Amino acid sequence: MDKKDEIILQQLDVIRTMSENNLKRMTSDFWGAPLSGGNSKKDAPVPEKNTPPTATSGGEVPKNENEVEVAPPEKIEDLKAELDTYIGLGEIKREVSNLINMATVFKRREAAGLPNTDFSLHMVFTGNPGTGKTMIARLMARIYHSLGILSKGQLVEVDRSGLVAGYVGQTAIKTQKVITSALGGVLFIDEAYALNGGSENDFGQEAIDTVLKAMEDHRDDLVVIVAGYDDLMEKFIHSNPGLESRFNRYLHFDDYTTDEMLDIFKMQCKKGCYTLAPDAEQDVKDFICDENADGITFGNARGVRNLFEQILTEQANRLAAMETFTKDDLMTITKEDVLHARGLEE
After folding, report:
1. Distance separating alpha carbons of residues 101 and 206, to the nearest angstrom
2. Listed residue (342, 338, 296) closest to 318, CA to CA
3. Those residues with Cβ within 8 angstroms of residue 213's Cβ, 6 or more apart along the chain or in another chain
4. Phi and psi (nearest 5°) for 207?
5. Helices (H), 113-257
6. Whether 282 contacts 258, CB under 8 Å
7. Closest of 137, 154, 179 to residue 71, by C-alpha
8. CA angle, 216 then 100 then 93, to 5°
9. 73-105 b/e (C-beta count within 10 Å ≥ 16 → b)
10. How far apart are CA 261 and CA 283, in angstroms?
């Protein structure tokens, strides 16, 4: 194998890795704070390197999760600065700033021996896929750890499959195991409305009851965030008095605009050490518009990531057909790459 083939294989391996991570619902959001220069850790925002491990959406918790060394709290100023770097999310940024201020005053009153009103940190995140809900949940875990509200600051992300078992008596055990891994941090339940199975033999309610009990028993060191589509989450919360009483703070995540999604694409280029040719920018924007005709199916930032991977595939195909190429060639995404990814010919 000559050096050229080696480089092409490396390019294809990058694309393959990105696709695998996408299928596994990457634990780090791809469109968060930018990485500096040539950092090759594609999937993790810089401050994430000190955060404890995250469970997968299927509820697989890393071994010895509760025995890992707890990272020292980050500076709240640094976390606020990171929040400012996120693309879009204007209303969410304001709400998070409000929460930071409220939590800060709460802790200061507590330290001064003053009483506090009942202040719930549990939240409902609503919005379409790919709008940054997991990213903000992870940031909130780090913020609460920074403020001394949570002892560890990890995020454990699950969905129905990570909490509900198929036989009587197993769901409570399975759910409790996940809760134990989340103590000291945030338990993030995606598509939480799926726990309301509705059938007589469904064990979703058992998972809900177990989570509600944990929220009461560990109110000082556990935050629960439930997430999903607007209407379905509204019905889910109002289906159970226990849920209504514990979740009274709603954060709605708007879809990204086309310009914001183009900025996300550029952010991904920067993270991966790619340069988007100036004459290709409008074509990328048109690609996003075409694919985003159905915003829910496209998936906002996740959809942008998929387009990015498709374009990288076409770039690799183009380079493979070249006799020689430079480092700049390896870094450049051309108009031709974008048009081929769209199924058009230049």
Report:
1. 35
2. 338
3. none
4. -65, -45
5. 133-146, 160-163, 170-182, 204-217, 230-237, 241-246
6. no
7. 154
8. 115
9. bbeeeebbebbeebbbbeebeebbeebbeebbe
10. 13
Distance CA 176, CA 149 (A): 22
Residue 189 tokens read as 């339940």
Q: Is the pLDDT of residue 34 over 90?
A: no
Tracing tokens 């469970």 back to the chain, one arrives at 55
pLDDT tens digits, one per residue of 62-82:
444 445 468 899 999 999 999
Type of residue numbered 1: M
Using alpha carbons, list the distances in angstroms from residue 4 to 38, 97, 313, 320: 21, 50, 16, 8
Q: Does the pLDDT value for residue 199 go beyond 90?
A: no
> Do the beta carbons of residue 322 and residue 329 sit within 8 Å?
yes
Q: How many angstroms separate the Cα of 275 from the Cα of each of 39, 44, 163, 239, 316?
A: 15, 20, 43, 50, 14
pLDDT at residue number 24 = 44
For residues 23-56, one letter each, b for 16 or more C-beta atoms within 10 angstroms of the residue's C-beta and e for the rest, the string is eeebbbbbbbbbbeeeeeebbbbbbbeebbebbb
What values do phi and psi take at 155, rounded to 5? -115, 130
Find out whether 244 and 117 touch, Cβ atoms under 8 Å.
Answer: no
Give the chain's end-to-end CA distance (angstroms, integer): 32
Which residues, in sequence order, are bridge partners of residue 141? none
- Enumerate residues 6+ apart whose C-beta is below 8 A from 3: none
pLDDT of residue 168: 77
Other Cβ atoms closer than 10 A to 70: 16
CA 226 – CA 174 distance, rounded (Å): 18
Matching residue, tokens 């990171």: 82
Stretch 229-251: mean pLDDT: 93
**Tens digits of per-residue pLDDT, 36-68?**
333 333 333 333 334 444 454 444 444 444 454
pTM above 0.70, yes or no: yes
Q: CB of 213 within 8 A of CB of 207? A: no
Kindly compute the dihedral angle of the four CA atoms of residues 268, 87, 153, 66, in this order, to the nearest 10 degrees.
Answer: -30
